Amino acid sequence: MVPYAYNVYEPVQPHWFYCKQVESKMVWLPFSVLDSIRLEETFNSGKTERNVIVCTDGGRYDVQLYDRARTAVYWEEEPTEVRRCTWFYKGDADSRFIPYSEDFSEKLEAEYKKAVTTNQWHRRLEFPSGETIVMHNPKVQHY
Q: Where is each WWE domain found (predicted)?
């Protein structure tokens, strides 16, 4: 039996997060699995109208999918940013992972797919934002 020379590419399954101010820091928190699945299903349904709303947190919050905003239903609260997340980084002073923007994550996923399907690793990926990332193998990336 001949071993595979290449890895099989499988796209990352996204999870949805929202940003919330905790004390003086902005913290990204995951939606529940059920809410994330519901957001992903609505996202994949192809509905692009601005008025598409998904109820989350037991109906206490609405997510305006087009605007990527989460708003409280029953009380006054500033809307918070929502992201469909696939790639994360950890800053020097951060104890939590922070999701990359959706646009940047798409670029990373395309580069990851290229590396997996061609089996070419250890390339330095330099992005216009100044970010440099090295994908060492299918399991390890360095920021």
A: 1-84
In the chain, the N- to C-terminal Cα span, in Å, equals 37
pTM: 0.84
Distance CA 143, CA 24 (A): 25
CA distance 101 to 20: 16
pLDDT digits (tens, 9 = 90+) for 99-114: 999 999 999 999 989 9
Per-domain boundaries in the chain: 15-142
pLDDT one-digit tens code per residue, 3-60: 555 578 888 899 999 999 888 888 999 999 999 999 999 999 988 788 899 999 999 9
Q: How far is it, in rounded angstroms, from Cα 122 to Cα 11?
A: 20
Q: Which residues pair with 27 in a beta bridge?
A: 20
